[in-house]
Amino acid sequence: MTKRSATTSNYSRRDALRMAAFGGAAGLIAPHLLGKPVLARTSSAKPTGRVIVGLGQEPTVFNPLMVHIEVDDGVHFSVFDALFRIDPQGVVQPNLAVEVPNQKNGGISEDGLKWRIRLRDDVRWHDGKPFSAEDVKFTLELIMNPNFRSWRTAGHALVRDITVVSPTEIAWRMEEAFAPYLSFLTETFIVPKHILEKEANQNSAAFNQIPVGTGPFKWGQRVAGDYLELVANPDYFGEGPHIERLVFKYIPDITVLYTQFKSGDVDLVGQPYITPDHYGEAKTLASRVVTLVPRTAFESFYLNMERPQFKELAVREALYAAIDKEAIAQGLYYGVPAPTETFMPRQSFYYNPNLPAHEYNLDRARQILDQAGWVPGRDGVRAKSGVRLSFVNSTTSGDPLREQVQQFLQQTFTQLGVEMKISNLPAAVMWGEFWQKSQFDSVIVGSTYLIGADPDVTNRLHSRSIAAMGGRGSNNAQYSNPEVDALLDKGARTFDPEARRAIYYRVQELVRRDLPFLPLYQNNAVQGHKSGISGIVPNGNTRTESWNALAWHWAS
Amino acid sequence: MSRFLLNRLSQSIVLLVIVSIIGFTVLNLMPGGPLAQFGLDPGMTQKDVERLAAQLGLNRPLWIQYLDWAWRLVRGDWGHSFRDGSSVLAVIGQHLLATLLLMGTSTAVAIAAGTWIGIRGATHRYSLFDYCATVGAMVALSVPTFWFGLIGIYIFTLKLGWVPAGNMYTIGDGSVLDYLHHLILPSLVLSLVHVAIWSRYMRTATLDALSQDFIKTARAKGVSERRILLKHVVGNALLPMITLAGMQLPSILTGALVTETVFTWPGMGRLFLDSLGYSDYPVVMGLLIFSAILVVLGNLIADIVIATVDPRIRLG
């Protein structure tokens, strides 16, 4: 990547180069093409200008440790710093820490249980107070405070005996070795102890509305329901920021968001980005840069493996063979998404490109069902041992593209002797207990499996993560495969990226074979910004397009 | 009069309690809830969701949640938003001004234009003007507001570049002129429907007044048509309009859902939609009670004004 990436990371030069190669040449070259490095500025010029980011949801939670939604991340990444950041290639970079700990540099003990982090000594909070290891300790303890409305506690729950060794060094012990924790820490922003410890109730602290961080931008103002404005932090310890004001403008209607991009009212279209049906036109707009950016979310036809219709692999295989992915991606989604065979984003170091390719073949689908003994009944619907091959498919109502996909598949499945009924629900209902406790037959869902760039998917695919069976996670397909379980356990304890890659390659093979969900395609975001803004580099390992707003600048 | 007010007040309290119970029950019986949106988050587990539900008090029996909410409300605490923890009254206050500005302007335009069109239509019945007004009103009432909004943006913003595409002001500007510039298109679009309603009501009311005996008497006495219209007809025709205005008060404040969305106007309508989308119960309940109070208040004000304007009506 940049000079900074290659030298300040604690990955060896070879590791870094290897990862960068897998991350894709585009990611390597793009920052330089755009004029300035991703996380760095090359001059000490005073920040100037303003960038307005249009968002479809309103950022409202500014304490980054509290439960929040994706769009809030744009604010968190700008106002706060984490111990580490993750770059577009998936390489963890130091942020508040001076190096990324690993087993080679002694930051993580050989058994993976003892962690020691060295911190920068030149960081100050926006109110001028110095940042220290006490803030990190306070942050990690606050997350696990049972009275605090924490966001994710996974990973943090394993941390024990946090010790402040010195103002610039902190250490702790893990209850068990957990390699993904490094990735979790890239999304754990550090909050100021000196402000929050005085609060009787951190859930309702004034800080939550007017946050104080160490990040490249300071809190400016918020007009509820309209916009919020951040201003450049001239004392930021790192390089940047270059723009004086960063504005997040809330535009709830997706068509209006695009219209305001066209009219020039917003400089950059953030989540939910430009809709696929506008992609063709957007590309032709003058003075705008419109690109397809791979996201970590992928669309799938999710099956509830505990339903008798789906218990047999032959059924799942037949349904998969009957899905014309190319027609859906091209015909319904204007060619924006990319068909995939796995849940791992293709930009990931752990993406397995060698999985068997899907082939749309209705005859083969019929053959599979015939051979498995699913015989068409008098109503044309196949059945076996008293189980009819009939099921309900649900998705969020009000999503016309997904609804079209459903109708398309419904027709195809009918030709196969499979009955699919459609019953859609509002998002607030769909993703509640119906999803969380596996009350569905099948759903069409766009979901993310990873946290940061870590390949650990225990929460989604381990058999102890089935909430409907009392498990702790979100294995909503109720998928259970002992080999996958063992591999996931091993992967979480393994710190070496090469060794982990072998593990997660195999996990992907097994999941592709077992088909607990029928993978459709990986989503691409249609991102657009005015051509005058430089330094915008997509990072599929974060949930926000504003992850590096400190590097943005207007071309002079 | 004071007896009337006391009577109305006690009825209103009962009404508000009923509205709140129904609203609270319906809202909380909907499956999903405010934490459902985290169901897709890869790092959030079912246990995390349950922990948060307990912290927010969502796992308590519904009637306890209601009593807790009602008791707080009585003490002036409207609760706190689930989304950002800020007080419900503050959230409503932040959006109220934007809606008042938009709805106030469009209502003023609608009343002025609607009244004039209605009276002129009635006094020139079956003229070309009257036919045009009737057809225009039908179109304005039949076509959805968002369509007018989008067409307006397409023509006046993207093609002609006369007015902004939306928003209440330019970030960083915010001068009076800038506000007015942003107000033109949404208030005109929004007033279209109201002009149609007002003009139709006003036309009927004016025709009704024109057919009264005292108008014939006035005419027989030789009073000029202009004087008859201004002194006798308009005053009488406006009486039912006061009731209409009173009934419209809550709709004025709860905002124009669609228009606010199309024009990115940070008002109450959008707040209501957003809060429903997030299942932010405290804010939705706050808005519900706020609207109910406005309905009661609007009707009460209309009654009092009518009694003041028309001495034939006595309250009590």
From TrEMBL, chain A:
One family name in Pfam for this protein: SBP_bac_5
Keyword Signal: yes
Domain Solute-binding protein family: 93-454
InterPro entries assigned: Peptide/Ni-bd (IPR030678), SBP_5 (IPR039424), SBP_5_dom (IPR000914), TAT_signal (IPR006311)
Keyword Repressor in record: no
Keyword vocabulary terms for this entry: Signal
Main location: periplasm
Domain of life the protein comes from: Bacteria
Family statement drawn from the similarity comment of this UniProt entry: Belongs to the bacterial solute-binding protein 5 family.
Name of the protein described by the UniProt record: Peptide ABC transporter substrate-binding protein
UniProtKB/TrEMBL annotation, chain B:
InterPro entries according to UniProt: BPD_transp_1_N (IPR045621), MetI-like (IPR000515), MetI-like_sf (IPR035906)
Membrane topology field: Multi-pass membrane protein
Keyword Transmembrane helix tagged: yes
UniProt cross-references to Gene3D superfamilies, sorted A to Z: MetI-like
Keywords: Cell membrane, Membrane, Transmembrane, Transmembrane helix, Transport
PROSITE patterns (alphabetical): ABC_TM1 (PS50928)
Residues annotated as domain ABC transmembrane type-1: 96-306
Organism superkingdom: Bacteria
Record localization: Cell membrane
Transmembrane regions listed in the UniProt entry: 12-30, 96-119, 131-156, 176-197, 237-263, 283-309
PANTHER family linked: DIPEPTIDE TRANSPORT SYSTEM PERMEASE PROTEIN DPPB-RELATED (PTHR43163:SF6)
Family label: Belongs to the binding-protein-dependent transport system permease family.
Full protein name: ABC transporter permease
Source species: Bradyrhizobium ontarionense
